[in-house]
What we know:
Number of domains: 2
Number of strands: 2
CATH class of the largest domain: Mainly Alpha
Number of helices: 13
CATH superfamily of the largest domain: MetI-like
Order of helices and strands: HHHHEEHHHHHHHHH
Strand order of the largest sheet: 1-2
CATH topology of the largest domain: MetI-like fold
Radius of gyration: 24 Å
Helix content: over 70%
Strand content: under 5%
Distance between the termini: 6 Å
Largest sheet: 2 strands, antiparallel
Shape: globular
Amino acid sequence: xxxxLLRRVTGAIVILLVISAIVFYLFYAIPRDPARMACGKxxxxxxxxxxxxxxxxxxxxxxxxxxxxxxxFAGRDYGNYGHCPAPCLGYSFTxxxxxxxxxxxxxPLTISLALGSAVFFLVIGVGAGMIxxxxxxxxxxxxxxxxxxxxxxxxxxxxxxxxxxxxxQQMGLLDQPSYTPITENPVKWAxxxxxxxxxxxxxxxxxxxxxxxxQLVEQLTEDYVRTARAKGLSRASVFxxxxxxxxxxxxxxxxxxxxxxxxxxxxxxxxxxxxxxIGQLAVQSVNRSDLxxxxxxxxxxxxxxxFFNIFVDAIYGLIDPRIRLA
Length: 326
């Protein structure tokens, strides 16, 4: 297991380096000169040169990337902006603040949004899928399948505004979406994010219901499950010890990818509810042509997806004895 994790971590580092090189080139080579955008209408050649030096973009592209990469591990000086300590992802073109500091300020909100919604769509989605599989072909199965199909066809930007209008403005059942750190007030933290959790979980719940049902129905027809039944084991024991354990692999895989994607930024949800998380930061960076910030957000999103893929691969050996990790 340790050798496997070391190989996966090494591969993840290589993947992130490749992603950073590609994204760095795309963000800095294709757009127009960011120094000229920051210079304004009263731009002079001397001021333009000074801005390029301050932003760290006065050198050729390969040199810029090398300096940026070194800054992650050893820090970097940015002219009049001062020293950016490691790990340094650069300075924002917009607010002249370190990129990593801004991302870390937004990250707790995005993590809260992702983990809270994950609890809902896992419990409800997997639970409904289990019921549908046990009651295959009966009324509960048809209801669960129909509701999951309806849920998967809805869009967050539609459901979010409708839910906010009805549940918050008209009926007053839920609080206006907001964010309070959990360390300050856990109750207010949960109440402010409850509506985004519910709306975000709708589409994921539908996917997990269908996934869980299909996997369990398939596992219940396997030979080893029939053998367990023939040996006289109870229905609950056969279901949870054999069928459910065999069905968990694909569900865990999808969950790891979904959670990594959400932590990388639930852009539409944050935009609908005006939540200042990583996704909203990415949108603002695009609108402001803030390339260092957009590069930092992209790398954080990529790192989250890579990390959760490693996590999923690592726990396969615990949930499925047929898989051996060298």
